[in-house]
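Co-fold these.
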Amino acid sequence: MTMPMMHPKRKNPVLRTQQMNLPPGARGRVALGITTAAAEGRFELQTCADCGAVQYPPRETCHKCLSPRLNWREQGGEGLLLGSTTLHHSNDLFFRERLPWQLGLVHLDAGPTVMVHLHGEVGAAPARVRVGARLDRAGQAVLIGFPNEGSAHMADDKMLREMTSDPKFRKVLVTDGKTEVGQAIVRALVKAGADIVWVGHAEPWKKMGGLDDISALPQVTLVPLDLTNGRSVTELAGAIGGKVDIVINNAEVHRNFGIASRRGTDVAKAEMDINYFGLLRLAQEFGPALKGRSADGATNATAWVNLLSIYALSNFPPHGTFSASKAAAHSLAQCLRAEMRPAGIRVINLFPGPIDDEWNQQMPPPKLAPATLASAIVKALRDGVEDIYPGDVAEEWLERWRDNPKVLERELAHGGG
Amino acid sequence: MTPTTNSELMSTAAILGGLVQALASNRIRVIDLTQTLTPEFPQIALPPEMGQCWPFRIEEVSKYDERGPSWYWNNFSCGEHTGTHFDAPIHWISGRNLANNSVDTIPVQHFVAPACVIDCTSEASANPDYLLTIADIERHEANHGRIPKGAWALMRTDWSKRHDPEAYQNFDETGQHTPGPGTEAVRFLVEQREVLGFGSEAIGTDAGQGYHLRPPYPCHYYMHGAGRYGLQCLTNLDLLPPTGAVLICPPLKIEKGSGSPLRVLALVGQDT
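Predicted complex below.
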């Protein structure tokens, strides 16, 4: 049983804020295969196409037959815990600050024996466990030994919380509360146990439904925030930046135009101004504050979530300028990720397909319900993943894009959504 | 214009000299009727699928720092109809074929002109949708004299004292609720009084519900159709006398510009 995490005490203001020392982050190019799968929530190992051997650690060739034909395959992770040990000493700064720390050796049913971080609910060896891959604070894949059947509070495990960004007891900024998506995100965060949800709203004179309902929630505080206005972002960062643990940037402008269907560039600029420059303004103002608090106690600053679009991967011509703005935002989010990773802050990118909102009125279903998108965000925070493609459309597009981006480009040019 | 006998007797040098002296001694005061351009000041809101007027936005270029060690300056962006601004006849479809209908071609003499202030404060405070009537104009004239040809007609509502943008915009689910002129009052001012233009304190010269009048947006339609101008987002109208003030309001000289943000100043004599 994991003891449910208690609400942390207030921070002692006379003590030096703990600084982040990342766990060892160096990985070779081949080993990054585990990381890329873990970034999407999967545990994958190399499997030999010739002899079928599954291997760990990753190598250039098969350790059994020396074949170079290795494929990454998803693993169930079932295995037998052979032995465990509890570290009471480490020369590595990250672990030294988090002792004691449990490690185990697991013989996977698939073949290899792997070293894992052990969840506190796993009993003494020998025991059946399930191994999963997670990203650690350095953004690198590590293997974790989970109990076969976890308790209700297993997410509160101290080791696991280091690998994830659970919103429980955390303080979150949602940048736009005026949309259905924003309001669904706020509700999901409150349900997930967030302590405070700051909800941005621009142009307060434009009344949108639903804002009053969420502002009635005791955890919610409305804050003026207009991502097109640098001063508004600066002022909010000054007011709450030092307390925000998770930023969820869901503000976006979405119009349905290609190049020829709308004269001028004003709509495209409005899209870029929020979708791209808005992210830039937000990152410049909130990024440094988050980085400074990434090891600050049990509710440290931990994650940054961007609402992108599956159209960021390949342009959807009927929504061509929107696609371009999301591609720009995706590129900038990669830059943000590179700048936040050394501080141990995770950048999570969402690539949804069409959302069921007023700007997709004329899109046929399936469309992603705002509440589904919101649950996907909370799940991504809890699972500690980096990239998510919520919904059937997004998954299908991703598959086609991975298969052959050029073919997808052609299909989309012919209206094949 | 036919000069009065008095001014014929005075040389123009004496007039200007007297003006300068009166300004220096504060016998003629300069009142600022302009809202400050800030990113927080609201802009006109149209349905989101339409083209939108940009709000005022400002970004530092440098501030005595690594981006420019000894100087401070900003870049800003806005629309022609952002903040306190001037509407030229070309702004509306009814004025699109008139001569000299854009801000760069309007005769500059029109940028210095007398103003009459029609007080509708109590009506507007009782009813945010208040529409100026011919009776209001006639009441004003009964007390303060006929509105002269070529003067600005300014509708004072004290709406500019609503400093909270939400109260200033005053939207509900049926749209915006701000005072403005009724159709008949506009036609009276254009046709019977030949005013230079109409000025208001709210976001537009037309009322918030002006789209539902006949024709839609009558002030824009008739004023600009007759080559007259508009001023909106004015403030400090409560500091002006009902008659006798002189407005100085030159818009930026934008090629084929439909309007422009501007500084609106009023000269007000001690004895007016």
